[in-house]
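Researcher:
Attend to token order:
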Amino acid sequence: MLDIKFIRENPDIVKKSISDRGLELNLDELLTMDEERRKLLNEVDELKHTKNIVSDEVGKLLNEKKDAKDKISKMKVVSQKIDEIDKKVDGIGEKITKILYIIPNIPHSSIPVCKDPSGNKVVKEWGKKPVFDFKPRDHMELAANLDIIDFPRATKISGGGFVLYKKAGARLERALINFMLDLHTKKHGYTEIFPPFLVNRQSMTGTGQLPKLEEDMYRLKDDDLFLVPTAEVPVTNIFRDEILKEEDLPIYYTAYTACFRREAGSYGKDTKGLSRVHQFDKVELVKFVKPETSYDELEKLRADAEEVLQLLGLSYRVVMLCTGDISFAASKCYDLELWAEGSGRYFEVSSCSNFEDFQARRANIKYRPQTTDHRPSTRYIHTLNGSGVALARLVIAILETYQEKDGSVIIPEALRPYMDYQERIKAG
């Protein structure tokens, strides 16, 4: 979240940020409550000072064995007033916190200003789109003919929006996960984490999914736990309420998890096949870095995610999101979008984001500089994350890019060591 002091001192910047995102939020209400709270705190400080003086006077009178009833009565009145104001301060503080939790991050000055996704900017294109001498099939037809994904039985088991991989489909999914984890740990310097798939409300709030996105999350009724929408949540919260050492930074983590999303806002969107599902696998990249390096780290993070797609030989583009499309918690974000020839469209498979200290404030993650040098003794860390990358849309692109006229699918060379050096997926 944003620092209340920053909001107080820069209301116009925050108001512009909200407007640039195409949102409406009454910031003046927050500022009025903040001013009232500060006045009450000053009043309490004065009353406590008075109480201390009277308490000393009572002590002297009692030591001198003199009557202190009037002073004691005065002290009780002051104490009662302090208690009343403290309750008011706590009540206003709770209201302020609730508003702070719904104020989005400040978009970075380098991203396009537009209130809807039409302002997104393509900043890079890589690879050539495949050319076929036959009409390419989409992934649903390919998967059915190859008998590697069973959508009808997945629906029977769990309902719409779930996937049942089988045979080479299940093997392909596992191969992709292992391939990405090996790449990020062995070449890119990430440490592998295998986190819980259930997280508490505090963890979801720390990374910004709550309270804004609660309707899109799967929640357990009896335990107030949430199925993870992304490994970003458990991995970022590893250091919640901790102070790290500067010499230990940067910290890079990568993690595989299944991800669960209700897709409550997907009405009217393309939900066919693997394009938008309630459960999907993903390898996530998470970074904890010093503020002065975070934007360089964002470019490195993006390059790490891009290398997955490059090694798989897939055509993709990089899109810088505008103010109206960037996520609630992010300051800057790149989407990586894969081209799928059979579907005739791009599919987003990664969002690489810098949150600056927005998540760190919510989760209370700090680090201690080695030398203060007129800097605070502790500072909020900057957090970044990105998919490295997400399935099942990656599977869409592989099937549709590497399909052959006979309906078989060539396995990308980078994946063959993970599939017993099998060269293609055939029917039967």
